[in-house]
Amino acid sequence: MFEQLLILLSDPIAIGVAFGSVTLGVILGALPGLTGPMAMALLIGVSYSMKTEYAIVSMMLIYMAGAYGGSMSAILLNVPGAPASAATALDGYPLARKGHAGRAIAMATIGSCIGSMMAVAAMATLTPWLVEVSLLFTSWELLLLVILGIVMAGGLSGEDPLKGLIAGALGLMLAMVGLDDLHTHPRFTFGSTYLQAGFALIAAIVGLFGISQVIVTMAPKDIGLVRTAASVGRVIPRWADIRGKFRVIFQSGIIGTFVGILPGLGADVGGWAAYGAAKRTSKEPEEYGKGSIEGVTAAETGNNAVIPGSFIPMIALGLPGSAGAAIVMAALFVHGMKPGPTFLIDNLQLFEYMVAGLMIGTVVMLIVGLLLAHVIVHVLLIPRENIMAVVVALAVIGAYASQLQYGDVWMMMAFGMLAVIMRALAFPLAPLILGLVLGKLFDEFLRNSLIISDGSLMPIVQRPIAFALAIIVVLSIVFSIPAVQRGMSSLISRVGKKKLAKE
User: Residue 186: enclosing H or E segment and its boundaries?
Assistant: First the structure.
């Protein structure tokens, strides 16, 4: 690990990639309507021509910096630049209204960087251990892990778990289009030679995140993004603000890392979970929502710790913990690599380079974040029409550059319209992305499992780990049903009332 860190530090191109990726992520994350995953989706096609190490680290840093960048507009405008910064706005904007925008941005930056560094340390420690455990798995366990990842992403995304499960199933179905790997038999191609290669992953991702976001952002609505709440002021962190916040930073970092490991939750859940825990354990909970520096610190530490945490299951098990991690996984596929139990065996140096890159990127994010604080105020005033025009151009370039096919551009537009319809119907996109990315693995593991067992499903019952995973999958689906959730809530309420009556 130390050797890769020295290699990265001695490579001026790598340092330039780190600064460029972090700067791009912070700016796009700060602009309402643009997010880190969307920026990754736009650039994934361009990254195909980059050196593998640079491309993967660049994707990761854009994702991480994008989550942090959302705190800028959350504090200055009360409009989170990314969903992950929604909790930050609760205390960040009141602080800005009081003339303490600089303090809020400084502590958001400190919390984001420490939370990210904690999660990177967990990534370096837990990933090899998780790989050792996963090497005990056969095709049956890996198949059930893929199913569990999609089910958890669907069940825990959005307000309606059933819609999340449907979105995940749709992603799996779309991934089945094309020639199957065993007999090269066309599936669901409807006679189209273009579809024999399946849906282009890059074009699909660009459409789902890029084009749909442009359409949603440009929809007529009164979003009031023309004025900031106050001038930024001093952004150099004060020791008086940092002192006494180490407990909440450590607590929020652990929560965010754990949330990142669980598939499908995302940085917004990490931010809210860390914010809620900090409020419950705070000595001044009444200050939360009115301008609490501790609240801003907790939210930003939690949501940024989710990002490196989501890479842990992606690398070790081939299960991305978030939509952004799924895009990083897609980038690995594009560069001919397959995340999963054998990834560290085949690409140990790349893994160490990724960890070193995230460490360097965290330090770069601290520098860039503090330097850009005053610039972001002016960037936020750019008309959204101008920004979206650039986004569309990048989307078309990214979709076309991956395979140099005009069909991919039309495919991008089709997936963009699908995403718009799903958003209008309140279907989450994260399970769809996970299903689309994991579909090939699902197909491979299912086929291998049935070939080995001669078509029998009995190994699921005979193998303890597979049986346990199957039970978790079934329970996850059952408890995602609204009627079951209401029944459980009613049962818990009745049991609680009976205990109170006895007391």
Answer: strand 186-187
Distance CA 303, CA 83 (A): 10
pLDDT of residue 222: 45
Going by pLDDT thresholds of 50, 70 and 90, the confidence category of residue 27 is confident
389/316 Cα distance (integer angstroms): 38
Is the CB of residue 166 less than 8 Å from the CB of residue 477? no
How far apart are the C-alpha atoms of 440 and 214, rounded to whole Å?
A: 29
Query: Whose CA is closest to 297, among 40, 485, 68, 482?
Result: 68
Q: Which spans in 335-463 are helix H?
A: 343-346, 348-379, 384-403, 406-424, 430-452, 459-462
Length of the chain: 503
Distances (CA, A) of 153 to 37, 319, 323, 432: 16, 10, 10, 9
Please give the average per-residue pLDDT across 334-351, as a whole number.
82
Could you give the CA distance from residue 281 to residue 304 in angstroms, rounded to a whole number? 20
At 176, give phi and psi (nearest 5°).
-80, -10
Distance, first Cα to last Cα, the chain: 57
The model carries a pTM of 0.76
Query: What would the pLDDT profile of 135-157 be if each residue is shown by its tens digit?
Result: 777 788 888 888 877 777 666 55
Higher-pLDDT residue of 255 and 47 is 255
**DSSP classification of residue 237:** P
Helix (H) or strand (E) holding 332: helix 323-334
Q: Which of 60, 58, 59, 66 is nearest to 85 (CA)?
A: 66
Can you tell me the distance from the alpha carbon of 130 to that of 322, in angstroms, rounded to the nearest whole number? 18
Say which DSSP state 285 is in. Answer: G
DSSP single-letter state for residue 187: E
Residues 6+ apart with CB under 8 A from 278: 248, 251, 252, 288, 294, 295, 297, 298
CA distance 444 to 446: 6
The DSSP call for residue 16 is H
Question: Is residue 224 helix, strand or coil?
Answer: coil
Closest CA to 13 of 357, 483, 406, 255: 357
Most confident of 96-100, 152-156, 413-417, 426-430: 413-417
Lowest mean pLDDT among 217-226, 274-283, 360-369: 217-226
